[in-house]
Amino acid sequence: MNRTDRGLNSRSHEPLETRSEFPYHWDVDEFTTRRDLLRMAVLTSGAIFAATVAIAVRGAFSSKTRGSRKAIVRADEVPPGEAHYFNYPADGEQAVLINLPDRGFVAYSQRCTHLACAVRYEADKNRLHCPCHEGVFSVETGDPTAGPPQRRLPAIALEEQDGMIYAIEERL
Q1: Residue 2 included in any domain
Q2: 91-142 tens-digit pLDDT
Q3: Is 5 among the domain residues?
Q4: Of 1, 18, 56, 123, whose CA is between 20 and 30 Å from 28?
Q5: Are 144 and 150 in contact (CB under 8 A)?
């Protein structure tokens, strides 16, 4: 005669009626106590906080510039009011050099700060225009003036030497 024939639960030596009313055995279910769960939650929260602080510190001290000196074009090849497109700081990263009639040369990354579409210079409207979502940037400062972009275009520092225009660095 086995235990179920005698009316006992084979696992916990309790009567079968108790098993049907309350089928969980608390003595077996205590793998993690409330104290262990709270300790794990506090340690996880602390680790996430420490990682966030580390990322913030790294961002605060990281370089806000990139690129190195690179020859772009001769100054006399870009008449006032015209633009010259070039790659900077690396091949495949497009930039635009604009000769403003009253200010001289300015250069910006051609990547829109909204969704990275190509920004084009529109001389007739004196603006930088992103056709993807109708973003508009100021030619003088690179600041957004219309559309969804919220951040300015990264400016490229320029230097003119012996009639040649050089890109020095991109300021993010």
Answers
A1: no
A2: 889 999 999 988 899 999 999 999 999 999 999 999 999 999 999 999 999 9
A3: no
A4: 1
A5: yes
